[in-house]
Amino acid sequence: MKPILLQGHERSLTQIKFNTDGDLLFSCSKDNIINVWYSHNGERLGTYEGHNGTVWTLDVDSESRFMVSGAADNTLMLWDVQSGKCLYVWEFPTAVKRVAFNQADNQIVCITEQRMGFQCAIRVFDIDRSGDGTNQSKEPRYMFNPIGSKATVCDFTYTPDVIFTGHESGKVALFNVKTGEEIANNERAHGDTVNDLQMSKDYTYCITSSKDKSARIHDTKSLMIIKTFTTETPLNSAALDPKRPYVLLGGGQDAMSVTTTSLRQGKFETRFWHKIFEEEVGRVKGHFGPINTIAVHPAGTGYASGGEDGFVRMHHFDESYFKTDLYGTGNIIIED
Amino acid sequence: EDARESVTVNAELVALRKRLVDEWNAWRTRCIKDMVESRGLKGKAHSNGDANTAKEEIE
User: Fold this and answer.
1) Residue B54: which pLDDT band, with cuts at 50, 70 and 90?
2) Is the CB of residue B46 less than 8 Å away from at least one CB of chain A?
3) Closest partner CB to A334 (pick from B25, B31, B32)
4) Which residues of A touch B37 (CB under 8 A)?
5) Confidence (pLDDT) at A287
6) Do A336 and B28 touch (CB under 8 A)?
7) Which residue ranges contain the repeat WD (chain A) (predicted)?
8) Nearest-CB residue to B35 (from A204, A328, A334)
9) Which label site among A6, A51, A189, A228 has the fewest CB atoms less than 10 Å from its CB?
10) What whole-number distance in Å separates Cα of residue A299 and Cα of residue A312?
11) What is the pTM for the complete model shown?
12) How confident is the model at residue B55 (pLDDT cuts 50, 70, 90)?
C-alpha cells in the first residue's frame, strides 16, 4: 500500500473530505486555501482561493456541485465546485469552526467560535439550488446558542431539524435547530474536547474522536455509546470504513506538548481498530507530525490522511486488505 | 495440558467474538427499524400537514 503524497499545502491540514463518488478529495488548511485532488492519481485539479485566514472546515454536497467552507476570517463561503468560483459569502463576528450539508443538500449547519464576548452559535442556512447558486439568503433559517460547553463539531441526523453536536467539555448532544432545545445529551461521552465527528452512511450512528485519547461510536438516536476505542495518544480524527469492520484513528501529541520523554516512533500513525471487537488491528506510518484529519473513500477502496506536517497522504488499499480474515469471522455476517 | 488450555482459551475467545457480533447485528437491526419507522411517521405527518393546509385554503 504505497501512498500518494499530495503536495499543495504550505501549512497544516485542518479537514479533508471525499465527494460522494470518491473521485475527488477536498482539503483545507491553515495556509488559507482549499485544494481539490483526483483521488486515483493524486493530481491537483484546482484551488479555491478567497479566504483570508485558516480554513477550518469544508463540506461538499452529494452532487459535487457546491462546496462550503468556514474559516478564521469569520466567513463561510459557498463555492462552485467545477469552476472554483465563490458564489456567496456569509460574514460573522467570529471564526467558523465547522460546517456540514444535510442529506438533501438544501441546508447547511455551521458552528461559529465563542470569542470576544460573542457566544458560540449554531446556524442553519437554506441553500438555494435553483439558478447559479449566487442567490442565497443572508439570514439563517435558524440560529441558537448552545447552553453550557461550546460546540466544536456538528452534523445533521436522519431526523429533520435535529443535529448531533460534540463539545469542548467532551459532551455530545442532540439539538432541535428550530427551537435551540437540547433534546438529549451525554455529558460524559468523552473526558475532553470532541474534535471530529463522522456519520455512518445511513446516519444511524457516528464516530467521534477526542483529546481524551479515545474514539467512540454513538447511536445517533439514543446517544448510547456502542463502542469505545482507547489509544495512548490524543486523537484528532476518527473515520468509519464503509466496507470492512474497521475504524481509522489519527492523532498524536503536538510538538508543543511533547515533554522530555519525547518523540516515540509511531506516534503519528493511522491506527486501524476492529469496529466490533474494539481491538487494534494495524497501523500505517507516514506523517512527520500529528494526523489532523482522516477520510475514508466512500466505496472503501482507500483512505486519506491530512497532517500537521502539511501533507495529505492518499492510500489505496491492497487486495490483501479485503481478503485478510484476522479473526476467522469470514463466515459470520456483520450487518452495516 | 497447555494444548488443552489454549484450546479452551480459543474457544472462549471465539464465543466472545461471536457474542459481540450478535450484539452488534441486533443493535443494527433495531437502528434501521427505528430509522424506517421515523421516516414512515414523517411521511404521515407530512401528508396530514398537506391535508390541513388544503383545508385552510378552502376555508
Assistant:
1) very low
2) no
3) B25
4) none
5) 94
6) yes
7) 6-47, 48-89
8) A204
9) A228
10) 19
11) 0.91
12) very low
Long-range contacts of A187-194 (CB under 8 A, 24+ apart): A189/A216, A189/A218, A189/A223, A189/A225, A190/A166, A190/A214, A190/A216, A192/A234, A193/A152, A193/A167, A193/A168, A193/A169, A194/A152, A194/A153, A194/A166, A194/A167, A194/A168, A194/A170
A329 contacts chain B (CB < 8 A): yes
What cell does A314 get?
492518499
What is the distance between the alpha carbons of residues A175 and A181, in angstroms, rounded to a whole number? 6
CA distance B17 to chain A (A): 7
Taking an 8 Å cut-off on Cβ atoms, the answer to whether A158 and B18 are in contact is no
pLDDT digits (tens, 9 = 90+) for A292-335: 999 999 999 999 999 999 999 999 999 988 887 777 666 567 77
CA of A158: which chain B residue's CA is closest? B35
Cα–Cα nearest to A291, from A191, A195, A164: A195
**Taking the domains of chain A in order of start, what are their residue ranges?**
4-323
From the list A158, A226, A329, which residue is nearest B21 (CB)? A329
pLDDT for A331: 57
Strand blocks (E) in A130-277: 142-144, 151-156, 162-167, 172-176, 182-186, 194-199, 205-210, 214-219, 225-230, 235-240, 246-251, 270-274
The answer on pLDDT for A102 being more than 60 is yes
**Pairwise CB contact (< 8 Å): B17 & A329:** yes
For the cut 80, the answer to whether the pLDDT of residue B56 exceeds it is no
Q: Does domain A4-323 have CATH number 2.130.10.10?
A: yes
Which residue reads 486523537 in cell numbers? A235
Least Cα separation, residue B55 to chain A (angstroms) = 25
Q: Which residue has the higher pLDDT, A331 or A95?
A: A95
